[in-house]
Amino acid sequence: MASLTLPPAPPNPRQDAIDLQKAFKGFGCDSTTVINILTHRDSVQRGLIQQEYRAMYHEELSHRISSELNGNHKKAMLLWILDPAGRDATVLREALSVDTMDLRAATDIICSRTPSQLQIMKQTYYARFGTYLEHDIGHHTSGDHQKLLLAYVGIPRYEGPEVDPTIVTHDAKDLYKAGEKRLGTDEKTFIRVFTERSWAHLASVSSAYHHMYDRKLEKVIKSETSGNFEFALLAILRCAENPAKYFAKLLRKAMKGLGTDDKTLIRVVVTRTEIDMQYIKAEYFKKYKKPLAEAIHSETSGNYRTFLLSLVGPGH
């Protein structure tokens, strides 16, 4: 469930473009108007506003935002106005570039997306950057982490809710043999099960494993694997079981302790607002006894804070 609130009647994209231009034109930018317009329009409407803006003012809205806003507010807004696949592709490209390398961010985006989202994102990645996502993954990752990511973006998985209990039991046994039962770990088996099976299937494997061996599959991954490979397996497993809980945890980590990991905070809020932010807020409140909006409020300030809070919406 999305947390985005939209006006009762669909606004006119041309009028929005005119109002945005007015907000940019004065002395200093009228950020409140910019935020009010753009955080209450869905992905399609934001696309139309950009078309109108380009047609009327012969300039990309993104360029104008770039010159008018700054800091985290600018970063968040530039990501927000992109379409979902374009946004994921942009975050990935940055995470897989030498100067801004962030393999955790790349892993998070890849492992938390559905097969159909990954399909569109790969096409967008190639269209935007003239290179295949697989090529950039191959270039910047290594070992089992690389094998897992390449298989995950390459294999079209089933997305429905049905599972075959016989295969579930079989997979649970295979994972037991590949991990706890032997010395060392047979990573190939983990990669196979985690990249070829649907989320519904993996969630069933997880509970079957717990039932059969009295140990949580998550604990097994933590003791049998490490580094980015472990991070990727956990991301896949947690998204299979409860994506909202996975993102609530990411947000909590981004805001815990000294300083804020704004990159993660922006990425999660902006990419989940139109998908499942209401569920993420519920999970956050359940686990940390504090509304997500309150946490964001205490970690951010100014227009950046206003922007994020407009997306996350009130309540928990």
UniProtKB/TrEMBL annotation:
It comes from the Eukaryota. InterPro entries: Annexin, Annexin_repeat, Annexin_repeat_CS, Annexin_sf. Keywords: Annexin, Calcium, Calcium/phospholipid-binding, Metal-binding, Repeat. Signal peptide: none annotated. GO terms for cellular component: cytoplasm; plasma membrane. GO terms for biological process: response to cold; response to heat; response to salt stress; response to water deprivation. GO terms for molecular function: calcium ion binding; calcium-dependent phospholipid binding; phosphatidylserine binding. Coiled coil: none annotated. Belongs to the annexin family. A pair of annexin repeats may form one binding site for calcium and phospholipid. This is Annexin. The gene is Ann10.
